[in-house]
Amino acid sequence: MRKDSLKPIQMMTLTVGAIFGVDILYGPRAVASLAKQDAWISVLIGGILAIIIGSVYYFLASLYPDKDLPEIFVLVGGRFFGKILILLNSFNTMVYIALSLRIFAQALLMFLLDRTPIYVIVILMALVSAYSVYKGIYTISGVIDIIFPVCKLTIISVIILSLPQGDISALKPILFENFGNVLKGSMASYYIFTGFSTITYTYRYTENKKGTYKWYLAGLIIPLILFVGLKIATLMVFGQEDVKSLVFPTLTLTKSVEFTATFIERMESTAAILWIIIVYEAISMFLFISVRNINVLFNVPSDKSKYTVWLLLPIIIFTAVIIKSGLKVFEFFEYNRAVMMISGSAVVPVLTLLSYIKKKRSRNRI
Amino acid sequence: MRRILLSFLVISLVLITGCWDWIDIEKRGYVLGLAIDDYESISQEGSSSDQKEKGPEDKKKFEQMELHQGQPIYALTAQIPVIKNSSIISSNSVGNGQGPATWEITQAGNSFIGMNRQMQSRTNLSLYYEHLQVIIISENAARKGLENIIDFFVRDPEMRRRVRIFISKGEAKKILQVKPFIDDHAALYISSIPENARKSSRIIAKTDLGEVIKFVHGGYDFVLPMAESTENEINASGGAIFKGDKMVGWVSEVELEAIKMMRNIYIGGVLTVAIPDTENATATLEITKSKCKIKPVIEKDKLSFDLTINITGNYAEEVNYHTHGQLNEEFLKKLQKAYEREVEMMCRRTMEKLQKEYEADAIQLKKIVQKEEPEFWKINGKNWNEIYPASEIRINANVNINLVGLKK
Amino acid sequence: MGIFQRIFKRNKNRETVFQGHTEYLRKFQLSKNIDDNRNRLLDIMNNSFDIKSREFNIGGTSLRSAVVYIENLVDEPEVMEHILKPLILESVELISHAKKSEILDIIKDSIISIGDIEDVFTFDEIVLGILSGDTFLCIEGHDRGLLIKIREYEGKPFSIPETEPSVKGPKEGLVETLKRNIGFIRKRVRDPNLTMETFMIGRRTKTDLVMTYIKGIADPDLVEDVRKKLKEIDIDGTVAAIEIGNFMVDRPRSIFPLIQVTERVDKLVAGLLQGRVAVIMNSAPECIIVPATLPILMQSVDDYYESWVAVTLIRATRYLGLFISTLFPSLYIALTSFNPGMLPTKLVLSITGSRVGVPFPAIIEALLMVFTLELLHEAGIRLPNVVGQAVAIVGGLVIGQSAVQAGIVSPIMVIIISITALSAYQIPDYSLSLTTRILRIPFMALASVLGSFGVAIGLLFLIAYLTSLKSFGYRYLSPISPFSLSDFKDTIFKSPRAANTKRPEFLNTQDVVRAKNTESGNKK
Question: In terms of residue numbers, what domain contains C136?
Fold first, then answer.
């Protein structure tokens, strides 16, 4: 009987799980409308930026090997200021979860079910994720471990299978007077990588702190490659004018793959199931983060800490269901993500610097 | 434990109240094919099929519907399989395989989703479009513009982008009413014809809804396959040219071949040419590969194109000329030249027609200019409609005869 | 003396006093008067007829003594031969020269030539001993008695495991007698580190139980855990080892089996060599091996006898069968009633064709067929072999075929249910196949409300549940969930060297390397 701990490779799977979320379905549209046929370059740049900032996060986590982010906030920022940070972080995260649930339910309604009320889908998805969080990070990581290969393979096959229909000339002309748009698009793509901050929460559970960096990096690179691949595939198959007008480009992409008369004649069915899994992963991770935040914020004693998730659940479900307009949800989601990423990218490097200096000073003192 | 049971009970209460999306499989009407006709043309001429049936007035009455506003523009016909009459039933079921295997419902109206829902009032099955194979649009409706028609199909999540589109000469409804010898359903029959595009160059292989949408949104011109029918057969060779989203004319089978070659979607076919220095003798080439490179050339602000077509094929058949074991290099070389000339002539004639008569850029030169010469496009893009008919197109074909079969 | 009177006075409240209760009996000491002792014993045993007592004189002297035993539990000829005979006939020399206080010791050390001998003082030990098949000897004037073990072990000499057949390999199964079972194991593992620890479980049954493991391989934490749990069991009694298993697991209400129950000796020994712990009980032909994880439950002994390619394919089929058994009917319901768009067009048309005229919606059909399947299964177990054939015919042909022809169910449903049933039966562990049968129903319910989304959600719940399930502290899904590459080589795939070189990593064994020679014959 071993003590439970995460293996370094799970840093990769957990990060990938958290990054791939709801935006895989409709992400290409926003960026394509800005950067047109060079949208894939935007994603590439956004991803590289994410890797850089992500490494800063990793560094912060490695400075405090047995603490996670809310505890670091409190430690470095002081009790008052740290808790404010946690509060903001939790608020953002919970809004993210609620909006993700809502968007997920809307897309599911469109492609799989029809008349089922939204709250049913939202509640069920929230329940499954909450159940995993209740059982602990090891359960979440266990489920993600099992699902991970299936998930990634399906995405890769969607990309590869839609390529023959695509027209590579849709990517041309490359960077023709488009550079400004590409940069604008990169900011939008940077937001897609929300979720890379989960390293700061999962780091303390790994048994073997050495060697996790390369897995974390892999966990950032894999989404990067897959996002770029998806972007290229959608551009090639639809052409950049069409992508702008699609609400869910990736799902529509899967609809366009077809093998006549084989059993998997329609790729979209596997894609729909796949998507349920992806959203589950993201929501579980973010829910876990929220729970940790709330536990540290209110100093919940550790024997009661696993019940927090059931408290959070009604709030989140309520938020998800209450928004009336189906289109506005996307806007809110973009704002939410932008806020999270910008605040994270601003705050965390500063914190890291502060902690580094602190550590150096305390080392020198000793 | 009690907690789990309680939550389980609560959840199941909620779930039991609805099986909101439950529809039994046999209660769905799978729309296999749709035909879209222009309403005025039908109502004026009177549907030829209607006259054969009893009670045309009653039928006409059902086909009308009360509209919220406007006049009926289109007539939508949906083909639904009648399962109990189809040939795939096993020993158990009710019904005996006689009777028509499909049911075509026609509805007139001006909004497709409206017409769709109205049709539901005439059938107890829930119409289901996820297995839609083909949409046939009549010439008259196509001339009015495609974008109106396809908006519904693009927006609705039940549609798939691989639905094939055909343009029919005459009434679209008639094509669906064909009773094929092989398949039970005309829609399945016609949608699998393009799979033979490898054999016959006169069918276009890849023209599905997705392609059409892409072209319409991008502002490209394109060509769609034609369909015409007799009582039991459907012929799908030939094409319809679209400028923007409106149809402007037909191209014949040979012209379609040329367009395919130039647009690089030619995947197989045959080409017959007269053997030089003979009378009445022809040799046929089975083309296995055809690739076309288009290079835009800009001189002094004037745009012209160089098309190079590379064809590889096998010597397939000779008529009225028998080599009897004397097939040799020289002969083949002569033939190659003859083929090249033939191809160039075909293409040139077709381009003439496209440029001068239809002014439609069916081979999508526009796209090439946009991609390869973006500076030129930036300046002159808005004048494309004038530039295109005036650009010079130089065609050069290279034919390579590869194999000769089993006989020399 | 007041104590005796209290006993002889028929206590009106005797029914409420559990007279066999150890603590109560402990109060009573052996008396020097053998008549008192004998009477008391008979009284405690309610004068059951099979309690025999024989009085005699020792060694020609007038020293009276008595032997008490239960007729069918002891080996009577041996008792006569080795206790009575020496005491009566052959002990004259020794006894006549002995001092009074030494007599019992002399008897114990020099006269009785058989069995384990134990000194006893209180009635709890005596009663337990007699009930276990020992012979009780008391001598006039001594307040110490002897319990001599000459038990008779009746029962099958060996058995053939019927519920776990295998194609190749030894077919020896455990029997109901503990002693013989231990013999089977010892014969196969001649390692002095093979440890057997004994326990006694059950207040009324006082069944013997043996926990066995190989010291130096098994994780000491695991051993300690099992030991602790066995000691804590406090129940009336049990007749099957499996019930004991349920007391030991962390989550007794779990649907998934957390212990492995087997009748086969080769599985038992393989488990011991892997580093697991086995518990065997008297009067039960099954043993429990812990810990049990899902991959372990999905293994069959044949896997180790065939080539690795064949085994990999077979195992893959088995795991696929696990899924099919749980999910197939629900997938059918979900796909046909909610998303027929996911199936190919021709398939949809033919399914629709076969369902025309069927009066029930798909879920009712599915439930009906599942119910019929369960009926058939239970009936098949109850009926004796002779009649069992008829059941197969009735079930398969009559019910299935006729139902289809009457138009009550569609032929597609019959196919689906048959495949589902077959997949359940091919799971090597019976409890696990029961689990899949249980799980079918909630999945069908989910599918009927929410279609494929419901199935996906249910699957996620199930996977989350499984990942957090632990059997004796080991994760149920090792090595799939805490992924361990070296163990995974023996789970679904079987690589040629996998099973023989190392022990399973997740078991945290002390001795890791199993073999220096690999299967392919190369020295490592």
Answer: 2-149
Distance between CA atoms of residues C38 and C370, nearest Å: 61
Residues B247 and B278 placed together within one structural domain of the fold:
no
Amino acid (one-letter) located at B37: D
Indicate the SS3 state at residue B38.
strand
For residues B147 and B399, what is the distance between their CA atoms, to the nearest angstrom?
40
Residue to substitute from B11, B160, B372, interface A, most A β-carbons within 10 A: B160
Taking each helix axis from N to C terminus, what angle separates A328-365 and A39-63, rounded to the nearest 10 degrees?
Answer: 40
- Answer whether B221's CB lies under 8 Å from B241's CB: yes
**pLDDT tens per residue, range B359-406:** 888 788 888 888 777 778 778 777 788 888 888 888 888 888 888 777
Percent of chain A scoring above 70 in pLDDT:
91
Cβ distance A120 to B14 less than 8 Å, yes or no, reads: yes
Q: Considering chain A, what percentage of its residues have pLDDT values greater than 90?
A: 0
Question: Which of A10, A50, A65, A70 lies closest to A290 in space, CA to CA?
Answer: A70
pLDDT single digits (tens) B340-351: 888 888 888 888
Residues C46 and C121 in one domain: yes
CA A273 to chain centre: 18
Mutation to test the A interface, candidates C293, C455, C467, C509, most A Cβ within 10 Å: C467
Q: Which range is least confidently modeled, A210-219, C32-41, C92-101?
A: C92-101
What are the pLDDT digits (tens) for A58-106? Answer: 888 887 777 777 777 777 777 788 788 888 888 888 888 888 888 888 8
C253 lies in some domain = yes
Whether residues A1 and C461 touch (CB distance < 8 A) is answered with no
Q: In the block, which residue shows the tokens 């008919």?
A: B389
Q: Which domain holds residue B51?
A: 24-251
Nearest to A108 among C342, C453, C472 (CB): C453
Q: Are residues B149 and B263 in the same domain?
A: no
Instruction: List Cβ neighbours of A25 (8 Å cut-off, separation of 6 or more).
Output: A103, A107, A248, A249, A250, A251, A275
Helix, strand, or coil here: B341? helix
Q: What share of chain A is helix, strand, coil (3-state, %, to 5)?
A: 80, 0, 15
Q: Which residue of B has its CA nearest to C347?
A: B88
pLDDT for residue A175? 66
Q: What is the DSSP letter of A2?
A: P
How long is chain B? 408
Residues C122 and C201 in one domain: no
Q: Do B97 and B79 share a structural domain?
A: yes
Residue B133: closest C-alpha in chain A = A260
Instruction: Look at chain C and report how many structural domains it folds into.
Output: 4
Q: With an 8 Å Cβ cutoff, are C352 and B83 in contact?
A: yes
Q: Which pairs count as long-range contacts for C159-166, CB under 8 Å and 24+ apart, including other chains? A: C159/C263, C159/C285, C161/C263, C161/C264, C163/C263, C163/C430, C164/C262, C164/C263, C164/C264, C164/C267, C164/C428, C166/C264, C166/C300, C166/C301, C166/C302
Of the candidates B233, B251, B269, which is a domain's last residue? Answer: B251
Residues C327 and C469 placed together within one structural domain of the fold = yes
Same domain, C454 and C333: yes
Q: For the segment C65-101, what is each residue's pLDDT rounded down to a tens digit? A: 888 888 888 878 888 888 888 888 877 777 777 777 7
- Digit-coded pLDDT (tens) for A22-57: 777 776 667 777 777 777 888 888 888 888 888 888
E runs forming strands in A179-266? none
> Tell me: the pLDDT tens digits for A300-344?
777 777 787 888 888 888 888 887 777 788 888 888 888 888 887
Q: What is the dihedral of CA A178, A181, A187, A189, to 10 degrees?
A: -70
Q: In terms of domains, do B189 and B279 share one? A: no
Q: Judge contact between B168 and B247, C-beta under 8 A.
A: no
- State ipTM: 0.88
Q: Which two tokens stand for residue C223?
A: 């051993």
For B169-179, letters b (16+ CB in 10 Å) and e give bbbbbbbbbbe
